UniProtKB/TrEMBL annotation:
<protein>
    <submittedName>
        <fullName>Pentatricopeptide repeat-containing protein At1g62670, mitochondrial-like</fullName>
    </submittedName>
</protein>
<dbReference type="Pfam" id="PF01535">
    <property type="entry name" value="PPR"/>
</dbReference>
<dbReference type="Pfam" id="PF13812">
    <property type="entry name" value="PPR_3"/>
</dbReference>
<dbReference type="InterPro" id="IPR011990">
    <property type="entry name" value="TPR-like_helical_dom_sf"/>
</dbReference>
<keyword id="KW-0677">Repeat</keyword>
<dbReference type="InterPro" id="IPR002885">
    <property type="entry name" value="PPR_rpt"/>
</dbReference>
<dbReference type="Pfam" id="PF13041">
    <property type="entry name" value="PPR_2"/>
</dbReference>
<feature type="repeat" description="PPR">
    <location>
        <begin position="181"/>
        <end position="215"/>
    </location>
</feature>
<dbReference type="InterPro" id="IPR044179">
    <property type="entry name" value="PPR5-like"/>
</dbReference>
<feature type="repeat" description="PPR">
    <location>
        <begin position="216"/>
        <end position="250"/>
    </location>
</feature>
<dbReference type="GO" id="GO:0003729">
    <property type="term" value="F:mRNA binding"/>
</dbReference>
<comment type="similarity">
    <text>Belongs to the PPR family. P subfamily.</text>
</comment>
Length: 427
């Protein structure tokens, strides 16, 4: 009880100091419906298009008429409400009201469905409707639980109604049947993380620990991203250390966030050290992380250091091919910017020999520009011949070649490129 009282005092401090800084999307992602599939292509669903076309006054009637097709549709309620809310929050709200009416009419008593419907109310940022679902659940004989309270708190926070969210938390604290669980605290931590209110986020973190609830990956992801995005780098480092002590393996999102913070501080040595630490730990390195590190190398003009990193990465079995490709392209790009054509050609040859190719037209065009600046037109021909074996040139690249050959008055080469352009159907 002492720990809980301490945590509660911390939360009251947060409540008093809150000044409406919460700006965030709904932190939960849920799919309501026993018949839904969340991976559907909502843009092509004819039922969604029909709802977008009918007036608001016909929404519920249309839902009644289309009930059989709704149940067999590949469109989930989550996708439907999300898509509708982007065009018309009123229509999305009417859909939610219709779902609630059907559940009450059928005397629905599945305690999982009501919290899912409450969460959908967050998509239209309608606390009143969420409350209505909550009270309807009780009226239908379904006893509220922590999941229902957590869903309602999430709706409040997504609607920027922090006071009501805190009031619901207080009810949970004083109850016997639906005490706050680790999800409850994570919802608040995530909300204040996304709003940039680091003090409130850390207060909820302290309160969670005071309540005797253990750490988890979702919590650390919210804490670290909140600190990094608010440029509280020292705090982010401390929390990362706490995660290591807790023996929780960071996911790619956390690792990318830490690396982003290091790159923002322009510390190449630390960025390299962290990147190698991640490799040695055999954790996931994604292309986003590689792009951040390559950008820092390029900003500081350290292509030789990038060469050493590539050598280390090539020996590792834990690095994905997409990441290696990003490093290869980064090295080629830097040599091209520096007009070091010998190194460009060596780097391109090495990349192709190892089974990689360019990942963007921009990098290809930087190499071409370097050849043009050096007036190395015969060498450019060889580069293009090698490139065409494994890479399809884009229209912008053909335009660059045409412009360059025209300025150089190389009419024969210009005609050849124009023919190539026609043959691939881009003319």
């Amino acid at each position: 009880m002492k720990n809980m009282a301490l945590g509660f005092r911390v939360l009251w401090t947060v409540r008093k100091s809150y000044r409406g800084r919460l700006q965030l999307p709904n932190p939960h992602h849920s799919c309501f419906s026993k018949h839904s599939h969340s991976n559907s292509n909502s843009n092509a669903d004819p039922f969604l298009l029909k709802l977008l076309q009918v007036p608001n006054s016909r929404i519920k009637t249309t839902l009644d008429q289309e009930m059989p097709s709704i149940l067999s549709s590949q469109l989930s309620w989550d996708s439907l409400v999300s898509s509708l809310s982007r065009s018309s929050s009123d229509k999305a709200q009417l859909v939610l009201e219709w779902i609630l009416e059907k559940m009450l009419k059928e005397n629905e008593n599945d305690y999982n469905l009501f919290p899912k419907l409450i969460l959908l109310c967050g998509k239209v940022k309608n606390v009143a409707l969420g409350m209505r679902v909550f009270t309807s659940m009780e009226a239908n004989g379904v006893q509220p639980n922590s999941l229902a309270f957590n869903s309602l708190i999430s709706v409040c926070l997504s609607s920027h109604d922090v006071v009501t969210a805190l009031s619901l938390f207080e009810i949970m604290v004083s109850s016997e049947s639906y005490k706050p669980d680790f999800h409850t605290y994570n919802i608040f931590i995530s909300a204040f993380s996304k709003s940039g209110n680091v003090d409130a986020m850390l207060a909820w973190y302290s309160a969670k620990k005071a309540a005797g609830l253990g750490p988890d990956l979702q919590m650390f992801e919210s804490l670290i991203s909140g600190c990094i995005n608010s440029r509280k780098f020292d705090i982010a480092d401390r929390i990362f250390e706490e995660m290591m002590i807790s023996e929780i393996v960071p996911n790619a999102s956390i690792l990318a966030c830490i690396l982003k913070g290091i790159c923002w501080q322009k510390s190449l040595d630390r960025a390299e050290e962290f990147f190698k630490f991640v490799m040695d730990s055999r954790w996931e390195i994604n292309e986003n992380m590689a792009d951040k590190l390559v950008a820092l190398y390029q900003e500081q003009g350290q292509v030789e250091k990038m060469e050493k990193l590539l050598e280390t990465m090539t020996k590792s079995c834990a690095v994905a091919s997409g990441v290696l490709s990003r490093i290869h392209c980064g090295i080629v790009r830097m040599y091209a910017i520096l007009d070091r054509l010998d190194e460009v050609e060596f780097a391109v040859g090495r990349m192709l020999k190892q089974g990689f190719s360019f990942t963007s037209a921009d990098d290809v065009e930087k190499v071409i520009c370097s050849y043009f600046r050096r007036e190395a037109y015969d060498r450019l021909d060889i580069f293009l011949e090698c490139l065409k074996r494994c890479y399809v040139l884009e229209k912008s690249t053909y335009d660059l070649l045409i412009s360059g050959y025209r300025r150089a008055r190389l009419h024969e080469k210009l005609d050849s490129v124009m023919e190539d352009l026609k043959s691939v159907g881009l003319a």
